[in-house]
Amino acid sequence: METVQNEKGESTRGQISIHTENIFPIIKKFLYSDHEIFLRELVSNAVDATQKLRQLSSFGEFGGELGGLKVTVTLDEEAKTITVSDNGIGMTAEEIKKYINQIAFSGASDFLEKYKDKTDDKGAIIGHFGLGFYSAFMVAEQVEIITKSYRDGAESARWVCDGSTEFELTPAEKTERGTDIILHIAPDSEEFLDKARLRTILDKYARFLPTPVEFDGQTVNNTTPIWTKSPADLTDEDYKSFYRELYPMGEEPLFWIHLNVDYPFNLTGILYFPRIKNELRFQREKIQLYSRQVFITDEVKDVVPDFLMMLHGVIDSPDIPLNVSRSFLQADSSVKKINGYITRKVADKLNDLFNTDRKGFEEKFDDIGLFIKYGILSDEKFWEKAKSFVLLKNTEGQYATLDEYREKIQANQLDKNETLVMLYTSDRKQQDAYIASAVRRGYDVLLLDNVIDSHFINALEQKLEKVHFQRVDADTLDKLIDKGLNNESVLSEDDRTKLKDLFDQVLDNKSLNVSVEAQPIDELPVTITMPEFMRRMKDMAALSGEQSFYGSLPVSYNVVVNANHPLIGKLLAETNSDVQTALTKQVYDLALLSQNMLTGAELTAFVRRTVDAL
Predict the structure, then answer these.
(1) CB-neighbour burial class of residue 558 (10 A; exposed 0-12, middle 13-18, buried 19+)
(2) Does the pLDDT at position 52 exceed 90?
(3) Which of these, 40, 224, 291, 404, is most buried using a 10 Å CB contact count?
(4) Mean pLDDT of all residues belonging to the chain
């Protein structure tokens, strides 16, 4: 039914016109999933009205005084009302009929269409007054609009509706331009009649709106956050201060990137690199997404690549597509372009830091290494840039790029198949004996104790030609870097067979694979190892939190008896079977102890045997 019109300024009654295709998205209880959004929408619309007036003034179409443009939120607990007021553009009765009664129209869209040739500053117009306004009915049983247009001679008007399609439009007594939206809060929404609750919502959604927003006598927003300013006008302290404003409990960031692009999309923002260290923190302190300084969400997984989710900060773009309630991102080509742009900017920033301050970059690498490695794992374009600045760190605390490290170990760690073997430790304390053995051979050992290093080394083996990683305790050194050389054994083949049978009998464990091998006499008498492949698969299964085929396999260890060690010769020569058994158990427990695998009753028994022997 069409709106009834009255030319004499008397009361008008009618029905709101809703286009059929839009009826479901805007039904009052289903437009938004989160009811607190009503305040974001109404305050955003009020700011929109002030921004429109500012633009009209700049076009020369408003010659009056702008005054102090602002938005005021007022709570009246006794009357059970919340009022959102502005001194912006206002509306005539005809505009109410067009923009409020006929929901399919949008005041912001119409305004932009009319003035599109006069300005490209679309960032000044926040939202769509029609749909956003109707979020008020999620919490209100009745809504009033009292408004007066900026136009000369305009009459003020009052519009009242109870959330149905029926409304009343009458003259009002408002003397100043602007609009008051008065919400008569419904009984089931009286939780919002709480000053602290309203302040929390305003802090969340209105924190950086471009027009001052007042509540309870205080301005609640910063109208010019630093992402709206030129980097040339900002100091390091400005960036650090803004970070503290966003994350009051956070550590000082390592560095940051100022995003500022206007083609082929509009995007501004600040991304901070936190001190990530050795943990994956995707959800603790998120990147905040804004649209023209209106907070939208901190779920930015479609806008920001996965590996950048560990960053903190703000992204603001009017070009990110949202659904009708502005609550969810809708992935499209522009989102992919923004995603790619952010990835490039981050890679370029890291590359610049590496090239201009190598020492400073190395000092930060323990904090940002996890982030860089995750980026290499998840984004091929990032890898193409990061392969020149990702660093490897050895147990001596020395850093090297991939190319530098290959050159460093080329002469000594090439196996018989011309494959470069990179030795590493995932726990320098637990694997200290193995590291010491490798160092005695002149080998270099990398420290790869990051939570995703098992995945990282897999990726590098695929990306780098003829490179293989071996954990320093995955096998004997002669097998870790097999140069095709065989050590001579001081024992005969029969003696080696007797030793193997002895260890099999004493240990009596089917998960242990015993072998007797000729090794240098300065190696341990017995070494316990887990094959690199099995260990790596189990590490990755543990990190993913999912039970995989490899993660569910029973644990199996290799027990390597050093045929050339004097203790093994003594053990083999022992004629007392009880003493021989005790010695066998003792050297095996020493191997367990070197791997931090000797615990409980077995550790107690080992200590007692050692004391008795002394």
Answers:
(1) middle
(2) yes
(3) 40
(4) 85
Distance between CA atoms of residues 289 and 319, nearest Å = 12
Quickly tell me which residue has 């001194």 as its tokens. 87
Rounded Cα–Cα distance for residues 105 and 129 (Å): 9
Q: Kindly report the length of the chain.
A: 614
Express each pLDDT in 480-495 by its tens digit. 998 887 778 888 999 9
Select from 3.40.50.150, 3.10.50.40, 3.30.565.10, 3.40.50.11260 the CATH code of 391-480: 3.40.50.11260
CA dihedral 66, 67, 70, 73 (to 10 degrees): -120
Cα–Cα–Cα angle for 12, 17, 19, rounded to 5 degrees? 170
Q: Angle at the Cα of 40 (from 31 to 207), degrees rounded to 5?
A: 150
Burial classification of residue 57, based on how many CB atoms lie within 10 Å of its CB (0-12 exposed, 13-18 middle, 19 or more buried): middle
Q: Give the residue, 596 or 322, on which the prediction is more confident.
A: 596
pLDDT at 112 over 60: no
| Residues 137 and 143: beta-carbon distance below 8 Å | yes
- Select from 232, 266, 253 the least CA-distant residue to 310: 253
Tokens 């390597």 locate to 560
pLDDT over 90 percentage in the chain: 50
Considering only CA atoms, which of 595, 473, 482, 594 is closest in space to residue 536?
473
pTM of the shown model: 0.77
Q: Which two tokens stand for residue 609?
A: 């045997």
Q: What share of the chain is helix, strand, coil (3-state, %, to 5)?
A: 40, 20, 40
Is the pLDDT at 3 greater than 50, yes or no?
A: no
More confident residue, 69 or 324: 69
* 478 phi/psi in degrees, rounded to 5: -65, -25
d(CA 259, CA 270): 6
Each residue's pLDDT tens digit, 256-266: 999 998 878 88
CATH of 493-613, one of 3.90.1150.10, 3.20.20.70, 1.20.120.790, 1.10.10.10: 1.20.120.790
User: pLDDT category, 335, cuts 50, 70, 90?
Assistant: confident
For residues 447 and 468, the answer to whether their CB atoms sit within 8 Å is no
CA distance 238 to 358: 25
> Hey, how many other C-beta atoms are within 10 angstroms of the C-beta on 26?
20
* DSSP letter, residue 338: H
Q: Are 10 and 103 in contact (CB under 8 A)?
A: no
CATH 3.30.565.10 holds for 12-217: yes
Q: Which range has the top average pLDDT, 186-200, 299-313, 494-508, 545-559?
A: 186-200
In the numeric block, the tokens 């603790």 are attached to: 284
Structure confidence at residue 523 (pLDDT): 84
Q: Is the pLDDT of residue 118 over 90?
A: no
Sheet holding 420-425, edge to edge: 445-447, 420-425, 467-471
- Find where tokens 């950048």 sit: 308
User: Which residues in 456-592 belong to E strands, given as ranges?
Assistant: 467-471, 512-517, 526-529, 557-562
